[in-house]
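User: C-alpha coordinates for this one?
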Amino acid sequence: MAKLTISVVIPAHNRHEILKRVLEHLAQGSHRPDEVFIVDDGSTPPIAEALDLQAIGLSGLQVIRHDKSRGAAAARNAGARAATGDIILFVDDDVFPDTHCLRYHIQIHTEHPEPEYGIMGRLNFDPDLPRTPVMHYLEESGGFTIVAKGTEGEVQRRGL
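Assistant:
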Protein backbone atom coordinates (compact mmCIF):
# COMPACT_ATOMS: atom_id res chain seq x y z
CA MET A 1 0.00 0.00 0.00
CA ALA A 2 1.29 3.47 -0.88
CA LYS A 3 1.93 5.91 1.93
CA LEU A 4 -1.19 7.93 2.71
CA THR A 5 -1.06 11.70 2.34
CA ILE A 6 -2.70 14.11 4.76
CA SER A 7 -4.16 17.55 4.16
CA VAL A 8 -4.91 19.90 7.05
CA VAL A 9 -7.73 22.43 6.71
CA ILE A 10 -7.92 25.32 9.17
CA PRO A 11 -10.91 27.67 9.05
CA ALA A 12 -9.70 30.97 10.50
CA HIS A 13 -11.24 34.28 11.45
CA ASN A 14 -9.43 37.12 13.26
CA ARG A 15 -7.22 34.96 15.50
CA HIS A 16 -3.92 35.76 13.85
CA GLU A 17 -1.53 35.15 16.76
CA ILE A 18 -3.28 32.00 17.95
CA LEU A 19 -3.34 30.70 14.35
CA LYS A 20 0.40 31.29 14.12
CA ARG A 21 0.89 29.06 17.18
CA VAL A 22 -1.42 26.39 15.69
CA LEU A 23 0.78 26.34 12.58
CA GLU A 24 3.93 26.15 14.72
CA HIS A 25 2.48 23.07 16.48
CA LEU A 26 1.88 21.45 13.08
CA ALA A 27 5.44 22.31 11.97
CA GLN A 28 6.91 20.76 15.13
CA GLY A 29 4.88 17.54 14.95
CA SER A 30 6.31 14.06 14.48
CA HIS A 31 4.66 13.90 11.02
CA ARG A 32 4.31 16.92 8.78
CA PRO A 33 1.22 17.50 6.67
CA ASP A 34 1.54 17.18 2.92
CA GLU A 35 -0.46 20.37 2.51
CA VAL A 36 -2.15 22.91 4.76
CA PHE A 37 -5.05 25.12 3.74
CA ILE A 38 -5.85 28.11 5.89
CA VAL A 39 -9.28 29.34 4.88
CA ASP A 40 -9.29 33.01 5.86
CA ASP A 41 -12.95 33.67 6.53
CA GLY A 42 -12.98 37.46 6.13
CA SER A 43 -10.27 38.29 8.69
CA THR A 44 -9.19 41.88 9.15
CA PRO A 45 -6.44 42.32 8.24
CA PRO A 46 -6.21 39.38 5.84
CA ILE A 47 -4.12 36.53 7.28
CA ALA A 48 -1.72 36.51 4.32
CA GLU A 49 -0.89 40.17 5.03
CA ALA A 50 -0.77 39.92 8.83
CA LEU A 51 1.43 36.83 9.28
CA ASP A 52 4.77 35.81 7.82
CA LEU A 53 3.58 32.34 6.85
CA GLN A 54 6.81 31.34 5.09
CA ALA A 55 8.75 31.79 8.33
CA ILE A 56 6.74 28.98 9.94
CA GLY A 57 8.39 26.44 7.67
CA LEU A 58 5.44 24.33 6.53
CA SER A 59 5.65 23.26 2.91
CA GLY A 60 2.41 23.13 0.97
CA LEU A 61 0.90 26.00 3.01
CA GLN A 62 -1.81 27.86 1.10
CA VAL A 63 -4.37 30.52 2.01
CA ILE A 64 -7.86 30.56 0.57
CA ARG A 65 -9.49 33.95 1.15
CA HIS A 66 -13.17 34.72 1.68
CA ASP A 67 -13.55 38.51 1.47
CA LYS A 68 -16.64 38.32 3.69
CA SER A 69 -17.17 35.86 6.52
CA ARG A 70 -19.28 32.88 5.48
CA GLY A 71 -18.84 30.90 8.71
CA ALA A 72 -16.68 27.99 9.77
CA ALA A 73 -18.67 25.34 7.87
CA ALA A 74 -18.30 27.16 4.54
CA ALA A 75 -14.59 27.65 5.27
CA ARG A 76 -14.15 23.93 6.01
CA ASN A 77 -15.98 23.04 2.80
CA ALA A 78 -13.76 25.38 0.76
CA GLY A 79 -10.66 23.78 2.26
CA ALA A 80 -11.98 20.27 1.68
CA ARG A 81 -12.65 21.08 -1.99
CA ALA A 82 -9.06 22.28 -2.42
CA ALA A 83 -7.42 19.43 -0.48
CA THR A 84 -5.79 16.59 -2.40
CA GLY A 85 -4.69 14.36 0.49
CA ASP A 86 -5.98 10.86 1.12
CA ILE A 87 -6.95 12.09 4.59
CA ILE A 88 -8.37 15.51 5.42
CA LEU A 89 -7.85 16.67 8.99
CA PHE A 90 -9.85 19.68 10.17
CA VAL A 91 -8.15 21.76 12.87
CA ASP A 92 -9.74 24.89 14.29
CA ASP A 93 -7.74 28.12 14.56
CA ASP A 94 -7.62 27.91 18.36
CA VAL A 95 -6.67 24.23 18.79
CA PHE A 96 -3.07 23.06 19.15
CA PRO A 97 -2.58 19.63 17.56
CA ASP A 98 -0.78 17.04 19.67
CA THR A 99 2.81 16.29 18.60
CA HIS A 100 1.77 12.90 17.20
CA CYS A 101 -1.68 13.85 15.91
CA LEU A 102 -0.93 13.47 12.20
CA ARG A 103 1.18 10.33 12.72
CA TYR A 104 -1.72 8.69 14.59
CA HIS A 105 -4.16 9.61 11.83
CA ILE A 106 -1.87 8.10 9.18
CA GLN A 107 -1.33 4.98 11.32
CA ILE A 108 -5.03 4.34 11.96
CA HIS A 109 -6.12 5.01 8.39
CA THR A 110 -3.33 2.73 7.11
CA GLU A 111 -4.40 -0.08 9.47
CA HIS A 112 -8.13 0.53 8.84
CA PRO A 113 -8.74 1.93 5.34
CA GLU A 114 -12.47 1.24 5.64
CA PRO A 115 -14.49 4.49 5.47
CA GLU A 116 -16.29 3.85 8.76
CA TYR A 117 -13.08 4.26 10.77
CA GLY A 118 -12.01 7.57 12.22
CA ILE A 119 -9.89 8.93 14.97
CA MET A 120 -10.44 11.68 17.46
CA GLY A 121 -8.09 12.97 20.07
CA ARG A 122 -7.73 15.20 23.03
CA LEU A 123 -7.84 18.88 22.13
CA ASN A 124 -5.37 21.45 23.38
CA PHE A 125 -6.82 24.96 23.28
CA ASP A 126 -4.89 28.19 23.55
CA PRO A 127 -4.23 28.65 27.28
CA ASP A 128 -5.30 32.30 27.13
CA LEU A 129 -8.84 31.53 25.94
CA PRO A 130 -11.64 31.46 28.52
CA ARG A 131 -12.83 27.88 29.05
CA THR A 132 -16.36 26.59 28.55
CA PRO A 133 -17.47 23.30 30.11
CA VAL A 134 -17.23 21.62 26.68
CA MET A 135 -13.66 22.87 26.24
CA HIS A 136 -12.72 21.46 29.66
CA TYR A 137 -14.21 18.10 28.72
CA LEU A 138 -12.40 17.95 25.37
CA GLU A 139 -9.06 18.86 26.93
CA GLU A 140 -9.37 16.37 29.76
CA SER A 141 -10.92 13.44 27.88
CA GLY A 142 -7.64 11.60 27.45
CA GLY A 143 -5.60 10.46 24.48
CA PHE A 144 -6.45 9.43 20.97
CA THR A 145 -9.40 7.12 20.36
CA ILE A 146 -10.29 5.00 17.36
CA VAL A 147 -13.97 5.29 16.49
CA ALA A 148 -15.73 2.82 14.22
CA LYS A 149 -19.30 2.03 13.31
CA GLY A 150 -20.09 -1.51 14.42
CA THR A 151 -22.07 -4.13 12.54
CA GLU A 152 -25.26 -3.19 14.36
CA GLY A 153 -24.71 0.54 13.89
CA GLU A 154 -23.29 1.11 17.38
CA VAL A 155 -20.19 3.23 17.85
CA GLN A 156 -17.17 1.29 19.05
CA ARG A 157 -14.22 3.00 20.73
CA ARG A 158 -10.82 1.88 21.77
CA GLY A 159 -7.80 3.79 22.98
CA LEU A 160 -4.72 4.11 20.86
